[in-house]
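Feature request disguised as a bug report, sorry. It would help if multi-protein outputs had a clear separator. Right now it looks like this:
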Amino acid sequence: MSQQPPFDLNQFRPPRIPPGLLRLVVPALLVLLLLFSAVFTVGPEEVGVILRFGKYTRTVGSGLNFKLPFGIEQVKKVPIERQLKEEFGFRTARAGVRTQYSQREFGQESLMLTGDLNAAEVEWIVQYRISDPYKFLFRVRNARQTFRDMNEAIMREVVGDRTVNEVLTVGRQEIADTVSVMLQALCDQYELGLRVDQVVLQDVNPPDPVKPAFNEVNEAQQEKEKMINQALAEYNKVIPRAKGEALRVIEEARGYALERVNQARGEAAKFNAVYREYSKAREVTRRRIYLETMNEVLSKVEQKIITDENLKGLLPLLQLNRGGKNNE
């Protein structure tokens, strides 16, 4: 059996670095570390808040900037130009053409009690911007969570002052506008440094356990509205026609009355004219009236007998049985 040679440590000694090279590398590393810790960039939608030993000193804009190295100054980047949003009652898992939402339940955020003691599930979105980076970072501890708590408190207050029908139907935009105004006022009071852009009610529904009963109530209300609309349609069809008939009868009566009055006035005027002529020539007028009257009367008589006042023995001459039409 052969024996192995003894292990020699001198064979594994590291190579020696020349002292001149070491004097060049160490300052170069220090310079690189200095530049790395002193130079930073801020994005186009951001500002940089500089802290010196944890105390606010200044705010810098976008681009290349410098700070004191080795942890003396620190930078916090705040996206003041970017529109941020908070979701309540739901979460967006993946945004895109076909947005995917989280399957978790957020009933503790969305379940609310309305003013008429009904329950409603209210899901909404708040879009906002950071208007003051200093206030956002240092005035309120955990500003984002405080902002979410303010949203829930205000939304529950506004929904609690309205009926469930207003929340589900016609009052949604008014609720969103009211929440936006109240939320901005509270942000200013708390000095959060936030500006509320918009509040959008994403979805408002009754809770799942009461949806069947709520749907039945809606169907009954729709049936009620349908019957009311049908009655109004029938009313609008019958009543105007009856009013038209009444107006027609009234106008006919007025026309008949006007005709009779005008006819009576004409007869009176005719009588007055005849009387004035009669007053001027009584004998002539009397004879003319007599002749006109006889002409009107005799034209309607079928058999006429005209005799002389001196004639005697008239009866034998009359042929009464023959019924002559015009015997003179």
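(second protein starts here, but nothing in the output says so)
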Amino acid sequence: MPQERKIIISDNDPAFLQECQRALAKKGIRAVLVPRSGPELWTAILREEPQAVVCNLFMAGCDAVHIIEELRRLSSRSLPVFAALSTGGSDCLFQRFLEAGGSYLFIKPVDPTLLAVRMADILTPHTELSIPGHTQNNDSAAQAAAQMLRSVGVPAHLTGYRCLRTGLILLTREPDRFKKMQQLYEAIAAELGCSIRCVERNIRTAVEAACDRGDREIFSALFGSSVSRRTGKPKNVQFITALHEQLSCRVSAEK
């Protein structure tokens, strides 16, 4: 029997919580509703062991960052996916949220149907990008891209993971088509149904996550000469280029 998909949603608006619960139920996801309280959310997470948590960045008692950090410190289990609710204007805290292990930000007011769609997408294993023709080669490229992204520490639940994987497959299929990174962003956005700005931002977040969590030796071998001395991280274009070079060699060797 497949594991039940369960999400905890924490907020101080009962009507919003109930609408989210109904919307998620249509996606086959059970929502556990919790008041906007850090201590109550903490207790619910330990009790329910959800696959995902949607909560406010700021809560009574503690904030979302503190909860993520404490879960990582005290539990040997993998963290649930964390998505934040915010009224905006909290860029610094949201950056800390991402660095701690958060994955997504919803700006209030949030459409419960949209929230359900986004969370269902995050919790559902994604099918590989479908590219007409040469199915065997495409499957090989998709599998190699996914393996490579995981090996450098890009978390699979991040939207940036999907953007990077899609971009690598597109580059493998048509390497001469994309002379500029902007063209690749446009193609990724068209494939995934999002904006170019969203693609760029999500890839940047994924690169930062890889830098913070990935294997240092693998990362240094792949990106050592591309890492900025100022930031300690490669730029998007450097990250993608290095991975594409490795992926091309790997796929060619398998032909």
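Even a blank line would do. Unrelated, but nice: The chain has two domains: 6-123, 135-254.
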